[in-house]
Amino acid sequence: MKLDYNVGSKDRNIRIGVGILLLVIWLFFAKSFLIFAVGAILLATGFFSFCPAYKLLGMNTASVMDEAKFLGDTPVERASENLEEVKQEAVKTAEEAKEKAAEIADEAKVKASELADEAKETLADAKEESKRKK
Q: What range(s) does the Inner membrane protein YgaP-like transmembrane domain occupy (predicted)?
């Protein structure tokens, strides 16, 4: 059976993500063979951009551009290219998360500084009020 390209890029990313998630769940939490099998199948079909069930059902989620990208590739070359794309997307996502975390940290510092100033003012007011009562 020839491994036609029948899994599109969005479908591929979802399969790889869910496959990794299921394998992590299997590894650390639930030692169910079913979870392992589904995770491994999703991961493999994502990396090879080929789903035997899609072929049997005549389905294809790949766009023409997706199919042209892998025209003539062997399954190993296809998996290697998909792995490289996943790595690039992971790095991009990590960079975006790092930037967002830095923004949140900066906002938290500003808010903490404002609260500290407010606390100092409240403490000074309380000390002044205490002196007046004496």
A: 5-62
